[in-house]
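check this:
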Amino acid sequence: MGKLVSNLSGSLLNLYIRMFNQISNKDEEKLICSIEYANSYLEFSKPRFIRVYLDNYYGKKFDHSGKSYDSVKEMYEKEEDQSAISVFESRKPAYHKETKTYSLDFYGRADISSIKNFILEDIHHRGRDYLLFGKTKQN
């Protein structure tokens, strides 16, 4: 389940999982991930930007702290122990002056160029790919 907060400059998507709490005998929603998406509406020639904040404890670490957060992004920015959150960003593509295009190396896995193609990497371990999203055929 997700909740989308959107505006002209970008969006923030919060993802939740539904878990059964055996103590209270009820289903509960746990905030586990926030996805920040920056549009390029004002600069059409520039690539989009994605940042993912993932709660490594799936909402359990902050259950009993008495703190309330609207997003995992806010949790990352306000908590002293940032090791509880993994942060991934879309890799910045290389710009080629001759062709006036941006490109990313998908290691032969993406066959079709698209503004929607991206690679997520850990901000603490640049160059380590965690997710490749690229088109393989036309719609």
